[in-house]
Design a protein that fits this description.
Elements lengths: L13 H27 L11 H4 L11 H4 L4 H10 L17 H13 L2 E4 L17 E4 H36 L21
Parallel strand pairs: 1-2
Helix pairs in contact: 1-6, 4-6
Length: about 200
């Protein structure tokens, strides 16, 4: 493959592209959690506007926690709410964020999804010399981007743990509230054969 040197020390490697993909996929898992909770808890939110930070908040500025979550005795859902407070919501500029660079992480995700992120070797001159930088790209040093990707993976891991514990608690509460004469049939599960995964 022929690559021309643009003299801004870009990183072209499969490993760098895998880190970009990991960041994108991790960030999108949070929105998948929001879609799932909307359906599972029957929140009735429009699918078009669902995102993880918007899932928990109301339109009222006085109340920032949706009543459907507040009335539940499930502290894991509140844990998910606090994870959502680490994420930037472009529709709510006034919201205080717990993560100092949440807005930059959001911008980075948008560039990864819709535009272009250019990773640079660490010996690139500091951001003060932008003469050789691509104005269409989000330019970031490779090590800095990798730190942000690891932070995003940790956030998603935390959210996934809270989600699984929240669902387990919801199902236990449903079982306790169920009448004794209601029969619940178990559904046996099987594993998928390895040759089906090809």
């Amino acid at each position: 493959m022929l690559l021309l040197n643009t003299y801004d020390y870009p990183v072209y490697s499969l490993a760098a592209e895998k880190v970009k993909a990991a960041f994108r996929i991790a960030y999108s898992v949070l929105d998948k959690i929001a879609y799932f909770l909307n359906a599972y808890l029957d929140l009735g939110l429009s699918e078009r506007g669902i995102s993880f930070p918007k899932l928990f908040k109301t339109r009222s500025k006085a109340v920032n926690f949706r009543e459907a979550f507040a009335e539940r005795k499930n502290w894991m859902l509140r844990g998910l709410y606090w994870v959502s407070r680490d994420l930037y919501d472009p529709g709510d500029e006034s919201r205080e964020l717990l993560e100092p660079d949440a807005q930059e992480l959001h911008k980075l995700r948008r560039f990864l999804e819709h535009r272009y992120v250019k990773l640079h070797d660490p010996f690139l001159p500091s951001t003060g010399s932008d003469a050789h930088r691509d104005q269409l790209a989000f330019s970031i040093k490779r090590e800095e981007f990798e730190e942000k990707a690891v932070r995003m993976l940790r956030t998603v891991r935390e959210a996934t743990i809270y989600l699984s514990l929240a669902i387990e608690l919801e199902e236990r509460q449903k079982a306790e509230a169920r009448e004794d004469d209601v029969l619940v049939m178990p559904i046996p599960s099987t594993t998928i054969a390895d040759d089906w995964k090809m």
